Automatic annotation (TrEMBL):
GO terms for molecular function: DNA-binding transcription factor activity; transcription cis-regulatory region binding. This is LacI family transcriptional regulator. It comes from the Bacteria. Pfam families: LacI, Peripla_BP_1. The keyword Protein biosynthesis does not apply. Keywords: DNA-binding, Transcription, Transcription regulation. Gene3D superfamilies: 3.40.50.2300, lambda repressor-like DNA-binding domains. Residues 11-65 form the HTH lacI-type domain. The keyword Transcription applies.
Amino acid sequence: MQTFAYLSHKVTIADIARKLSIAPATVSRALNGHPAISEKTRKLVEKTARKLQYKRNNIASSLRSGKSNLIGVIIPSAEINFFGSVVHGIEKLANEKGYNVLIYQSNESNEQERKGLETFLHARVDGILVSIAKDTTEYDHFLDIREQGIPIVFFDRAKEELDIPAVVVDDFKGGYAATEELLKQGYKRIAHISGPAHMDVFKKRLQGYQAALKAHKIHFDLQLVVEGYVSIGSGQQATEQLMRLPEPPDAIFAVEDFTALGVLKQLKAMGKKVPQDIGVVGFANEMFGEHITPSLTTFDQQTVTMGKEATDLLLQLLDSSSKTIAQQKIMLEPIPVIRESSQRKK
């Protein structure tokens, strides 16, 4: 009956102290691993806490210590496997280091992104990881967070001018390699469906595309570049526009895989055969790419590694009294995943 008496209300440190006939301060130190408490006492306190189903008050603990052991993560969309995979990498390292992770989805909205940061402030997170929303064109909210002394790190989508630490893939190299893959297969008139031009990630892939054409002495035709919005529908609309040109392309490099899926859907609707009539390359290595017909050539962005590296940068900032880190930017290699959609030569 005595146990039930403890379970009828929220168990406190005082309850544990009463049960063991020791001071509440001793219980608190034991639960926090204080070196002055013997191993025997610590184990006894922890065993009793478990028996009484004691739950630590994290808010009170954070107020006392100044740390919440929470990391906030803002992703543009939970529907995209890419971001889920990055979060997997983030959570793995964060949990190993004793941090819990709060996820906020911006839905590609600048307004929601700002609300996410406010939510994290109220939750007293120790640091924040962000992949910038497509709709974001002003960045004062990130600078405000930094000025408040809260460490922040970008991943995948960053903004170089802000001088905020970031982990990104080498998008220029990826754009170059994607275009060159199509050139090696004998395609000559290669189009590019880009993403919003204000975003570094998409701008660099476009620059890589242009550089590959120049290196292979192929004229850059502005008509073959269509700015999209990183979606299936955007890929469909851009493809229809490109294929109605007087001289349509014989290959399309899509800025990412959902755009590429839209390309493939539209080409099929127009009776075009891939890769015989036209080649297609995407970017990001989304899970569906290997299961569609034809399977999609794409570039893997080392998502789990990206999550771990971004978390490691943030942890360095959290552990550093000067709030500085040795490496402000980490650039990962894009890994080619060659499949049917680009393989005209076999």
